[in-house]
């Protein structure tokens, strides 16, 4: 039976985005690919069913496209080793603030969704959220989006929980244009994301580093406790 759900993937023209697109197409989903590239427009059996061009800072213009989506996968990002201040600003804007804007937009759409099927958003934050990535600007931006997602998840009210599912994806180094020496194969990573994210788990960890499987659940647990304390004293 064909799956009629629609998946939106940002960074769809990247190595992982392409593999995720292929996998979801094979599983019967309709895929909308979001890209900054001016070259991506070809439609075939392995491409998104629909391409959407967008720019960071203009996420609000995508609302009509986001309304069509059941599962939104935030996979876009940059990795730049420049020491210039402009690189830090750009990394924070693309890797963190842009994803947070998408999250807020999708949350608002979910709250007005009349379907009984919950909207889902899967956010790729990376191991660099708390582990070294040999790139300070990348680490700072990933740490920021990681914290934003954790607080957003833990501070959701009951109405939002009924309408929206948030999943955080923690990935170790995989081979791509951004990281040509990555250890993991993007095809393997995409399959693991699909398998694990379709479980009930909020935290999806795919990494060759055993420390990730220890440190990230601990971090999320302490964030959860922190948010509980906030609510206790607020009430």
Task: Give your account of this protein's structure.
By secondary structure, the protein is α/β, with parallel strands linked by helices. It has one domain: NAD(P)-binding Rossmann-like Domain (Rossmann fold, 3-Layer(aba) Sandwich). 44% of the residues lie in helices and 16% in strands. Strands 3-2-1-4-5-6-7 form a 7-stranded parallel beta sheet, with helices on both faces. Helix 6 (186-197) links the parallel strand 6 and strand 7. Helix 3 (85-111) packs parallel to helix 4 (136-154). The longest helix has 27 residues, at 85-111. It starts with 5 loop residues before the first strand and ends with a helix. The mean pLDDT is 91.
Layout of strands and helices, then pairs:
Elements: E1 6-10, H1 15-26, E2 30-35, E3 50-53, H2 63-66, E4 71-74, H3 85-111, E5 119-124, H4 136-154, H5 158-163, E6 164-171, H6 186-197, E7 203-206, H7 212-234
Parallel strand pairs: 1-2, 1-4, 2-3, 4-5, 5-6, 6-7
What features would you highlight for this structure?
single chain, about 240 residues, alpha/beta, Rossmann fold, 7-stranded parallel beta sheet, globular
In short:
With 235 residues, the chain is of the alpha/beta class.
